Structure formats: structure tokens, C-alpha cells
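Sequence, C-alpha cells quoted for completeness.
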Amino acid sequence: MLFSAYFRGLSAAKKIALIAVFAALSIAVNCFSIDVTASNKIAFTYVVCFFAGWMLGGVPAFCIAFAGDAVGYLINPSGVYFLFGATLGVYALLMGVILNARRKDAAPHAAAPYIRAAVALVVGYLMVTVILNTAVNYWYALLFLWEGVAKKTFWVYFAGRIAFQSIVYAANTAICIVLVPLLVQIGKKYEKRRKQTDAVRGQP
């Protein structure tokens, strides 16, 4: 879960190369995010986190998300990047853990990857978009935009922010769902290649 089976099976050079590719993609997506208001932005960083979590596992995905947000901030400064980098890292970690969670003795089921993807996307939405990012945004607005005076209660702020961000998350989710069949095929090809390699080595 913390490291996917696919990632563990790669050579050190391929692991580094794959992390570098995802990191570059994460930086690019962060740089091209659009700030609509101080509390709302249009970004597709969740797609990169989803893909990285599935392919690499929770720990590499967390590092990619955090580093991508940090470097993206340095290129295109906006808001409190270290906190958003952390929450984005949490999202990537959740994707990696949930998408790669499976019992070793469980028989493979065609619907399992799609169920895990649905669970991961719902949990990510509730934990990060709804709770963590809203709290970070409210804290930022209170301290730096409103100069310590709460111009809105948390729940009024929450209602105004979550409506917009839910639409953004829905767009990210749609892209992730389109990617799922591709990721499933990559997983099947890897598993087939692993079995062939084990057979050549004489392993069960």
C-alpha cells in the first residue's frame, strides 16, 4: 500500500525515472492552476495524485505531491504553499493506500479496481477538499486577508467555498474515472510479465 507492487518490481533506475516524470507532471499542473478567488482555484493536481498513488503507492505519491506543490509555488507563488503541499500530499497518500489495498489471499475480481477507485475518490473528497483544504483556507483568510478579524463564520465560508470546489473536484474525478481502465490494463500487463519472469526463474 505504501509502495505499489508495480513500483517495488522496478529497478532503482526505473523508480527514479518514474518519480522524476511524475514530479515534473505535478509541477507543471501546479504552475497552470488558475486562482479564481483567494479561496478557490481551478487545478487538476488531484489527477496526478490519483495516477501516482495507483502506480507508485502512498509514500512516493506523497513526496511527488508535496514537492510538486512546493516547486510550483516557487515558480507561480500563491497562498500558503507548504500547508497546501501537505494536504495534497495527504490526498496522494490516501490514493496510494486505498488503491493498492488488497488481501494477499483474495481472488482477483474484475470490479475490485473500480470499487477501490470509487472509495479512494470519495474519501479524498471528504478528507481533503471538504475538511483539510477548507480549514487551511479559512485559517489563511482569517490571519492574512481579514487581519485576524473573522468577517465570516467558518460555516458561511465553508458553504461558499465548497460549492465551487465540488465542481472542480467533479472535473478531476471525471478524468480519474476515464484513466481507470488504462491503469487496470497496465496492472494486468505487469502481473502477466511478473508471472512469466517467475516461471522462467522456476518460482511458484
Remarks:
- The beta strands are 34-35, 41-42.
